[in-house]
Structures are given as structure tokens and as C-alpha cells.
Amino acid sequence: MAAPRLPPPSFAPPPSVRPRALAQLSASSSTAAVKSTRIKREVVAVTTPPAPAARATSLSEAWREIQGEGDWVGMVEPLSPLLRHEIVRYGELVAACYRGFDLDPASARYLNCMYGKRSLLREVGLPESGYVVTRYVYATPAATGCSRWIGYVAVASDQAVRRLGRRDVLVCFRGTVTHAEWLANLMSALESARLDPTEPRPEVRVESGFLSLYTSDESGSRFNGGSCREQLLAEVSRLMGEYKEEEEVSVTLAGHSMGSALAVLLGYDLVELGLNRRAGEQVLVTVYSYGGPRVGNAGFRRRCEELGLKVLRVANANDPVTKLPGMFLNEGSASKLPWGAGAGAYYTHFGVEVALDFFDVWNYPMCVHDMEAYLNLLKCPQLMMEKKKKKKKKVVQVNNPWSDGGVHGVMEFFTTMARRFLEEPRLDLILWRWLDAAMQVSNMVQSLKI
After folding, report:
1. Do 48 and 117 share a domain, yes or no?
2. Region (Disordered) spans which residues (predicted)?
3. Where is mean pLDDT largest: 146-150, 211-215, 335-339?
4. How far apart are CA 359 and CA 393, in angstroms?
5. Residues 328, 440: contact at Cβ < 8 Å?
């Protein structure tokens, strides 16, 4: 299927220009009308790129830019139509993991995929995706020792290569579904990753639950051969070596929620081990994260950035999962603590964020993190613009208890949260947040030896 033709990216005036223009345009006299015309010309002169023809408008021409080679500079605010199209496209491929997951206890395929590899994308409504699924991926939560289907590996077909501009190796992960996976999410202690046996790098630390899910193995499973990590490294390496060296290749890792954490771990693993090197050059490895939690500490962030791992984080401002782990001790709060905090003691996000704003965690707790809700908003660019014009909701503002840098802000935060805790009719929706907070405080005390 031919690629849809999209309008070229738009460019908004910088904040320093916009207020002046709006102020003059609001005048009601004829002189103001003349001025507004002059102002409009001035804005165009300032914001138009010096060489507009240099920005490619087709995916086959702009794929490196879309995959983050330039760190998405000038593409996020405002969101480039071409980038938005790709975010939605990869999001649909992630949603396929949910649509194909069998949650019927009476089914013979319970906790596995309902469809075979050849029919998965067709059965979930993506017959023209342009990808061929080559392997299913299974992960083993430490709490049960039993593997579950977590996602799939796919590669772009020959026809899709002409549209995409390269051979895209794709790995998609679903998010948390089972109770054992929720337990893995709540294991919020930081642990050294040590994925490179020749250079352990103990300062590179990641969340222990995600690491366990990534590396644990159910040796007796009839589905998977080895851990989630072993399956993925073997298949991605095989696909990268299957095509001619002169053919351009990219590696795209996409996931929602817990799946985005696995995507980040896999991305780090590939670039740390040098498995993205091909014909003497480095293959671009890009992570598309949807509603993803923090994965590691500042040492992990620095190492990923040094190795050139590209991460695009699509996050709803009202989604509590994007604030975890590290709700209380993170990149925003650690520097404001009275006693300070070492870089290895707190969690941090990294990459480039595409900020969304939809629903309210207190009124719509089941929607703020839903993958389909993410996709529905991304498909409506006008609605996205209207949302960004509104003021941030109070629930977002209260997520940073250290906003005033003192004890007053902390006490006000705890008072507010305690009141909401007592008033909340569904305590199960917030108990896990307090459990995470308790774990974070415990981990902080252990790390800092307070």
C-alpha cells in the first residue's frame, strides 16, 4: 500500500515572539491592523528555516530524522505530522500485543498469543502493516517461574522497505497484565545491570523487577528457548545479519508501560554489546516508549546517551506510571533534598518527551494509562493542541512534593495525599503507589547509609 502523503511539518513562533505578536494583534484600531500585518511578516521571517526544501517530507527520505538521529530537534514542539504518523504507526503495532493476548483461563493458549506468527497482524486488524513476524517472545516473572507471551519480533517486508527507506527490524512489547508482572513492577530496588560480562559497570543500575523479567528463564518451557534477553539478542542478531551489508537497516523497539522498560533494557543491551554494528557502521537503535516508567539511575542514563541509544517517550501528564519508580526520589527531587543524593541512588528518565494531557487520574483511573487512549489522542492533532492550551491539572502539580525546596512542600504533599487516601472509594488504585513510596524511602536509606 502506498504511503499516505502528509503535509510538511509546521513551525510555531518561539515563545519570545508570540506574546508580542498577540499583544499587538489584539488592538482594535486600524493602526493595529497594519501592525498585525507587519508582525506576521516578522514572525514568518524569524521562524521559517533558512532552507525549507532541506526538510524531507517523505518517510523514505526523512527516516533517520524520524528515528532520532538528530534527537528530534524541532520536531516535537510542535509535533511534526510525519513524526506523529510514525508514533501512531508503531503504537498500533504495540497494541497488537494486547489484542492478540489470550486471557481466557479456559483456553489452551491461556497467557499466550491467540494467533500464529503468520496471521497475528492480520487478525488484530493490521493486514497492511508491512511487517513479517519472525519470532514470538516470552518472559518469565520471578514470582511464578512460568513464562508468558510478552511480544514479538518482526522485520519489514521488501515492499515496505521502499516506503520506509530501510529494512526495519522491529520488537514490540505489551505492558503489565498478570499479577506476577505487577509484582515484578513493584520490585523497585536499583540493581547493577551487568549485562556486559567483560565490563560489568556497577554504576549502571536499573530497576530489579524489570531486570529480572528480562533475564529470568523457565528452562522447561515448550515455547521459549532461554530468557527473554537470550531470545531477543539471538533473533535481532540473526535478522541484522540476514540482509546485504549495503542495505540500510534500523532497529526499532516499541513498548507500552512495563513493555517500554523492556524495550529500553534491550536497546541498552544491544548498544552496550555492540550488536548494532554492521559493516563497520552503527545501526540506529530507537525506542518508542508509551506510558513508560523510569528504568534506571543517572549512571544508566549517561551510559545510554554515550552509546547513542535514542529514546522517544510518549507520556500523558496525568499517567502515574510515568512517575514511577521513584515517585519521591527522582531526577527532579534528588538535588533539592537537604542531605543531597548520589547519582546512583535515584531513578531518572532520559530521552525526548512527547507530552500529552488527557483525562484525570482521580476521575478516570482506568483511562490515563490505557494504550488505546494514547493512540486516540495522537490521532487527533487538533485535540492535542487544545489540551496543551489548558492549564495543568492540580493532580499533576502535586506530583512534585519538593516544588518549594523545603519541608513545607513535603508536608503539604503528604497532607493532600493522606486526605485523598482516606476519601478514595477504591483503595486498590492507590495502595500500590504508597507501596512504591515505602520501597523508595527504604532504598534511599540503604543507598545513602543514613
Report:
1. no
2. 1-23
3. 211-215
4. 10
5. yes
State whether 112 and 5 are in the same domain: no
Q: Which domain holds residue 37?
A: 1-55
Residues 146 and 232 in one domain: yes
Q: How far is CA 139 from CA 98, 154, 214, 260, 268, in A?
A: 15, 17, 7, 14, 18
Distance CA 450, CA 444 (A): 8
- Let me know whether 71 and 31 are in one domain: no
- Same domain? For 297 and 236 the reply is yes
Contacts (Cβ under 8 Å, ≥6 apart) of 56:
62, 65
Residue finishing a domain among 40, 55, 70: 55
> Helix, strand or coil for residue 147?
coil
Query: Which of helix, strand or coil describes residue 281?
Result: strand
Spatial separation of the C-alpha atoms in residues 228 and 105, rounded to whole Å: 23
Which of 55, 73, 93 is a domain's end point? 55
For the chain, the domain total comes to 2
Q: Can you tell me whether residue 184 is helix, strand or coil?
A: helix
What is the DSSP code string of 248-265? -EEEEEEEETHHHHHHHH
- Contact call for residues 194 and 444 (beta carbons, < 8 A): no
Conformation bin of residue 12: beta by default, left when phi > 0, alpha when psi is -120 to 50: beta
- Strands (E) in 351-402, as ranges, are 352-356
Which stretch of DSSP H or E encloses residue 374? helix 371-378
Please tell me whether the peptide bond between 401 and the residue prior to it is cis, using omega within 30 degrees of 0: no
| 48 lies in the same domain as 82 | no
Catalytic residue positions, numbered: 257, 319, 369
**Distance between CA atoms of residues 173 and 189, nearest Å:** 23
Contact assessment for residue 204 and residue 193, using Cβ atoms and an 8 Å cutoff: yes
Q: Per residue in 338-388, pLDDT tens?
A: 545 555 678 999 999 999 988 765 666 678 899 999 999 999 877 665 555
The 10s digit of each residue's pLDDT in 104-131 is 999 999 989 999 999 999 999 999 999 9
Taking CA 231 as the corner, what is the angle to CA 229 and CA 235, rounded to the nearest 5 degrees?
A: 120
CATH number of 270's domain: 3.40.50.1820
